[in-house]
Fold:
Amino acid sequence: MNLFAWQPNAEYDLVFFSFWLSHVPPELIDAFLKKVYNSVRVGGKIFTIDSRYEPTSTANNHTLKDDKNIYINRKLNNGQEYEIVKVFYQPEQLQAHLIKAGFQADVKVTDNYFIYANGTKLI
Ligand SMILES: C[S@@+](CC[C@H](N)C(=O)[O-])C[C@H]1O[C@@H](n2cnc3c(N)ncnc32)[C@H](O)[C@@H]1O
Structure:
């Protein structure tokens, strides 16, 4: 299903997603995280992990137009090429979005490749 059209009809103990948030267009992230918040029970958790921008993790046929540009060309093995959204969040930016959605949030990075966040729905 299209997650932007999805409406949660349950409250879960934990909502987890990996390598998804970086593909959410910036204008949709707050509404999306609010939906996630509404699908977590009070006392429940969110955990997410995604990529940091790190040149050595980018395939050489994937060009980043500009460090600040979130649109990247991705080429498939069959030669088809697509422009995709890929947002590389800084921890404090991601934390601000999670807090805005209602979560108490803690965001960290690993040495090179990953950014990860855990959040709790307190009220
Ligand atoms: C980089 S992959 C990550 C897949 C998986 N979560 C993982 O960690 O291996 C991003 C996934 O998001 C899916 N996706 C993109 N837009 C979507 C949308 N609007 N609704 C649901 N899934 C979507 C893509 O089909 C793709 O499978």
Remarks:
- Residues 91-101 form the longest helix (11 residues).
- The chain has one domain: 14-120.
